[in-house]
Write a structure and sequence with these properties.
It is a single chain. By secondary structure, the chain is an alpha/beta fold. The protein has a domain at 12-94 and 170-233: 3-Layer(aba) Sandwich (Rossmann fold). It contains 7 helices and 10 strands. It has helices at residues 54-61, 84-94, 110-120, 125-138, 154-166, 184-199, 211-214, and strands at residues 12-22, 27-38, 43-47, 69-74, 77-78, 95-99, 172-176, 203-207, 219-224, 227-233. Strands 6-7-8-3-9-10 form a 6-stranded mixed β-sheet, sandwiched between helices. Strands 2-1-4-5 form a 4-stranded antiparallel β-sheet, with helices on one face. Helix 3 runs parallel beside helix 5 and helix 5 (154-166) packs parallel to helix 6 (184-199). The longest helix has 16 residues, at 184-199. The radius of gyration is 18 Å and the shape is globular. The structure holds adenosine-5'-triphosphate. It is an enzyme of class 3 (hydrolase). Residues 12-236 form the ABC transporter domain. GO terms for molecular function: ATP binding; ATP hydrolysis activity; transmembrane transporter activity. Keywords: ATP-binding, Hydrolase, Lipoprotein, Nucleotide-binding, Transport. Its EC number is 3.6.3.-.
Amino acid sequence: MENTNQNTEPMLRIEDLSKYFRTEEVETVALNHVSMEVAPGEFVAIMGPSGCGKSTLLNILGLLDNPSEGKYYLLDKEVGSLKEKERTLYRKGNIGFVFQSFNLIDELNVFENVELPLIYLRIPAKKRKEMVNDILQRMNISHRAGHFPQQLSGGQQQRVAIARAVVAQPKLILADEPTGNLDTKNGQEVMTLLSELNREGTTIIMVTHSQRDSTYAHRIINLLDGQIVESVKNNL
Ligand SMILES: Nc1ncnc2c1ncn2[C@@H]1O[C@H](COP(=O)(O)OP(=O)(O)OP(=O)(O)O)[C@@H](O)[C@H]1O
């Protein structure tokens, strides 16, 4: 279906969603009846103290894990109860991830790392080359295409990771503390890149402890003990 400017459907919606982790002795309630919506084109920051459930929420939103209870609609499809194989398929076409620790594959060079999602999507080699080169240029890292992750600075590694996250043009980017391992200057550069991608239409949900990074978001959702305690619009 064509996107229209009048599109009022949320990018994603969760309803009364909970996640429990059970070990032999204890049950942890990581998310406790959470409901929220994110609109297409929104940039949302998720904040809250350590252990409040931020990563658990991001993992579920990113189809890396299932909720224990409740519904999750992504692009209008109920995805909370999908089996792992279907989840993986749906994730690959729709979601890009950026992690604090970059998560690049050490044995692959920059070009190959960024090419990987396109191989999964079975895009032909010639087209892949074009798409990878375009995004490396965009991320200002073309001159390092043949380098391996260990040969790059942290800021460069994160730019490669962002290139990999967006090369297949996902509708949604999930970022878990994307500047957590970067100095101020590189951190700001990464935030500027994410903001640009957002302005071009990509929806972004970012977990952060950084007050400064949260200023780039349209809205801040505060979690405490597995519950949303506040959802406030940012004065941009
Ligand atoms: N796989 C797991 N097994 C058992 N308990 C878990 C598991 N993953 C998370 N938890 C628990 O769920 C709760 C929420 O964890 P989560 O990692 O989502 O918090 P967080 O807000 O991301 O924390 P941080 O800011 O420290 O990364 C915590 O009490 C945690 O110990």
